[in-house]
Amino acid sequence: MSMKYVFDEIHGYIPLNTVERRIVDTPTFQRLRRVKQLAQAWFVYPGAVHTRFSHSLGVMHLMDKIATKLAKMGFIRKDDLELLKVAALLHDIGHTPYSHAIETFFKIRYGIRHEDIGSWIIIEDPDIKEILNEYGINPYEVAAIIQGKHRESSYNMLMSSDMDVDRLDYLLRDALHTGVRYGVIDIDRIVQTLTLDNEGYVAVPQKAVQAVESFYIARLHMYRSVYYHKTIASYQLLIQEIYKLMAECSDVRDFLKPFTDPQSLRASIRNEKFYLWDDFFIGGLMNIVMSKNLGSASLRELIRFYLRRISYRTMYEWIGFGNRSPLDINIIQKLRNIMDNVIRLGGGNYSVKLYIETIPIISEGVEARVLSPNGSIPINQYEGSIIKNLPESMGIIRLYSLPITEGYVRGLISDLFKHNVRV
Fold this sequence. Notes:
By secondary structure, the chain is α+β, with helices and mostly antiparallel strands. 51% of the residues lie in helices and 12% in strands.
C-alpha cells in the first residue's frame, strides 16, 4: 500500500496507507474538520479550536505504534492490525456538533451516545462501508471495538480503558491547545513500556509506574481545569438548551431536520447527508433564527446570550472525592428546592440549571495494571504507587443561573445555606 503523510502538531508525520487515506477522504470523515474537539472550551481558552479530525489521526497513530509492538510480542494477531487502526481512526466518527453538549441532548431524550451513532455510520454509510468491505475489514468488528464489545477483550482495552489510545492522545492535544500544563505526560515512556497482561488488560512493568502515575494525575487536573471547568460547563448547558428549543419550535425544527431524532439520523447516514451536521450547521442556524426573528422569545434570548458570551453563572459549587459515589444528596435536594422556587415564580425552566457529575478517577475493571512476578495487579492496589491513595471518583454539584434570575437565586442560596456559599 502506498503511503501519504499528514503532519500533526503532536506526533509529527503520520503515515496513511491507501485504505486509511480513502476513509479520511470520505465526506463523513472530512466533517470532523468542522467539529471542535473541546466544543465550548474556546470561550475560556481561545486557542482550543482544534478538531476531532486531528485527534482521530493521532489516536490511529498511537494505535499503530502500540498494536504493532504488541503484535511482534505475540499479544495481537498481525492480521488484525489494520482492523485496530481503522477502529481508532473511526472512534469519534459519530460525534455530534459541539461534541458532548448536543450528545447529552440525544442521550437524555433518546438514550443514544456518539458511539451508537458511530456504529451506524461504520455499518450503514455507503462510502465507508464500501471501503471497509473492499479491503476485507468487517464493519461489524470495527463497530464492536468502538463500543467496547469485541470478542477480543484486549482490543476493547486498547480503545476504551483508563489508559487507552484515545486518552493518551487527547490529554496531550488538549493541554497544548488550551495552554494548560497539567495535561503533559511522558507519552514516549508509556508507548515504549505499555503491554498486555495474560488476561488482556493494559499493563506496564514496575519500572514504568511513574509514567502511569503522571498520566492519572494529569487527567485528574485536566478534569478540573478543562473538561469540567465551571464556565465551559455552563456553555455546554446553554448550547444544549438552545438545541432543545430549536427542536421544539415549529418554525425552526424543519431547518434542523434530519438531525432531530435517531431514525432521522440513521436515514441521513444512508442518504449521505450526515456530513452536513457540523458546528457550522448549528452556528449558522442560530444566525438564521436571529436574523429572521424565528422561534420563541426564549430561544432568541438564549442565542443572544451565547453570541455575546453571556452564559449561566455559577451560584453554588460543591466538589468532593470518594471511593464510591461522592455526591452530597442533602445539598442536591436543597438546590432542587431552589430550582423549584425559581420556576414556580415564573423564572422559566431554563433560567436555572442543576449540574451533577460523578467522574471516575480510577475506573474499576479497566484501570491500568502493573506487572509483577505473580501476574499483574491494578495500579490502585499496587503498594509501590501513589495511585493507591487516590480516591476512585470526583463529584461535582453546581447550581447555575442566567443573569435574569441571578440576584433572586443568590438570595435563596444565602438563606438556605446560611451564607456558606461556595463558588
